[in-house]
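Blackboard transcription, Thursday session:
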Amino acid sequence: MQQYFYQLADHVQTQLRGGERYTLWLSGEASQFIRFNHGRVRQSGQVRQWYLSLRLVQGYRHVHASISLSADFDNDRQLLAAELLRLRDALTDVAEDPHLLLADEVHSTERTEASRLPPAEAMVEEIVSAAARYDLVGFLAAGPVCHGFASSEGQRNWHETASFHFDWSLYAGGDKAVKHSYAGFDWQREGMEAAIHQSASQLELLQRPARTIAPGSYRSYLTPSALGEVLDTLNWGGFSEKELQAKRSPLLRLREGSARLSPLVSLAEVSAGGLAPAFQHEGFLRPDSTPLIKSGRYAGSLISPRTAREYRLTTNGANASEAPESLQMAAGELPVSQALEALDTGLYISNLWYLNYSDRTACRLTGMTRFASFWVEGGKIVAPLNVMRFDDSLYRMLGDNLLALTEEREFLPDAATYGERSTSSLLLPGALLKGLEFVL
Amino acid sequence: MIETVRERFRALNTQVDFCSLRYVEERGEQLCVRQNVEQPLSTWIDRGAMITVIHEGGYGYAATSDLSSNGIKAALEQAKAWALRTRRHSVFDFNQARLGHPQGRYQVDSPRLHWNRRDMLGLLHTESAAAKRDERIVDWSAALMMAEVEQLYLTNDGGEVMQRFNYVIPNVMVTAFADGEAQTRSLGGQGNGYCQQGGVEIIERSRMVGSGRRVADEALQLLASPNCPTGSMDLLLMPEQMMLQIHESIGHPLELDRILGDERNYAGTSFVTLDMFGQYQYGSALLNVTYDPSRQDEFATFGWDDDGSAGEKTWLIRDGLLERPLGGAISQARAGMPGVANSRACSWNRPPIDRMANLNVEPGSSTLEGMIGSIERGVLMDTNVSWSIDDSRNKFQFSCEVGWLIENGEITGMVKNPGYRGISATFWRSLKQVGNESTFEVMGTPSCGKGEPNQAIRVGHASPACLFGDVEVFGGEI
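(Written on the board underneath:)
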């Protein structure tokens, strides 16, 4: 697809008229999608999609079109010709954009990893076999994903990998389940089976009589997955320079210095350690690392080219959403093996679910416990927890109430497939809190 | 392209028990003026087709944007291959679903949007300029989105359905800030709750004209308002919040695929079980909930769903009693019970699953003034801003942009950061009064998330204002 994309870019170049510029962004995948329920296949199929984003620029006027490509050059050439005409016409309708910022310097890059994946049907056979004894419900996505950028200045960027993400839950009965995933570039049957068996090892605990706790504050241990749900909520404008300027960011008080997090908390967008392309939609490259919070204090934001121009700042290669794509949290000193002992009595929370803000200014979040969450006494798991709603401020959770972070961190690739397969990821420790407020 | 796709599908030698092709072509445009500056004009054209095959009990699909004869033929072979590969492992013998071969056409009465880009931008500039009321207004925007969708559904036994839809979404959003606190107010909700099918008449219906100043004024009023009180009290929900309440705590729990367990790894399960239909008292006797694909202006109105089932208005909850789930043809066959035509996909590249379409609360007989007058102490809440609910769709907590305190039958002032929490299984039984037609509004959401692979789909919710008793209400921290 790389050569095809470059061929399209070269073709667009030939169609430009005096003073016109363009940028192209390609997002494509050939994905096998298989859903499982009760250890069997619910829905199986494949999706081949190639979306091209074409921006036509004339001076400070610019318009943008997203086009689904057929991957047939003659057909797509005609499609592009028609879109260029439409965009050229639309340019006369729009005003000059004082916030337009395109990359002037040319930085071409390329990263291509050949597929090492087995046929998806082989993966399915192995999953069904491994799941035979279990009530497994889950989803396998596999296949190549590619992203490309091209501009009239001659920049060319390409990022292509072929990965799999098998994300599943094993149910012990009712709503009690354990969730895990197995993802990567090299599928190993033994690795998948070991991961399922690891899930299964918690089923006995989940089949014990469940504990319902009363509302109140509880000492809690959040696994990296649970902490990831908390930090994902900050993607809604938390680190966005535009949202900080608009005063809607839930971390505004942190930036303004009227609130602090624990000195244990350091967060950074580490593009070099993630799965996302090292370039963004306007062709800017991303630095290897962008500090966001250092030792509990605000350290930086994610700045898209547009925001940079608007507020006279320097972009750090963020996309328009200004949300982290490769967020990492510094490790702590608590060995995971001692997490239960350190928790002593309280809640071991494997997953949180459906978080949202109950007071954005105060960065107060609400959400539910979900999957393999337990009541712990004396460092021993006693009973699975019936789902509970927490409602607490991040400034308390990761502020005074943060006792420790684990010294081991877990890499959590994003399983999301809205519109396209996500390339986002997290690298996080677990977190021990001396109190988390539950309300329902 | 539609005629070409039809010919190419008809030329296929399918040789399978059942095969369908669903072609979707969507063209759209997003206009936005933020802080009096036009944001980049964004347009899209998205077209492709999904072939679905049921063969020898297996089910497979293949989606492609290569609509050449070879591309469609390859998709058929790939869908057939997946059906054959998985038939031994399928959760269900899909041949039992007996998908139909419908014939027909659907489109709204006025098929043209009459979209004039310069006029639209002019309106957005006007509303944007009006929103900057004083220095405390720190961010403001006005936006319009439109989309035109054509959809062709063909089956291997002569089925053919052609449908056309037009969508318009107006939005105005204003953020006011003072003394370290931000308050954001919007037209219809920050999640684009004012979304309907039709043409530019939707702009007038939405009261977008003049909204820049109005929304900004309310954002400023919120800055000066006290926090919503905490305690158990009456709660009067307006349609801009009712749509969310219906969506999360009636719509999702009634989805049959959730009840059958398909969504347990992602969107979740349901506190509703198959044995509850026909005998479970979901709400008070005032609660009447319908699946209603008959309102032309509502966001998810259609003639047929994406498995070819015809839509027909159906009571899901009548006089509080749970009657029927939201389940399409395949889920109905799996569960052995009737459902509705709600097997839907967000576009050509996602397979149909059970989704809400238009899910409405039917109007009652109370006036808004009468409901307010009946409240000794309570809060009126409007326009959803936050939503969270457990994976069984029971314990929820929702917040609104704005609230008004009601004391002794009268509104006594605005309150900020209003929120409430409850449990679906008991909340609807506390429904005390249902507003009449004069309180009824057609709302929706353009992006209801569910499914693996994930899908964000258009959903409609129409509702009157509704009054609930003894609800746990709270405010913000400040």
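Lecturer's comment: Chain A touches chain B through 92 residues (CB under 8 Å).
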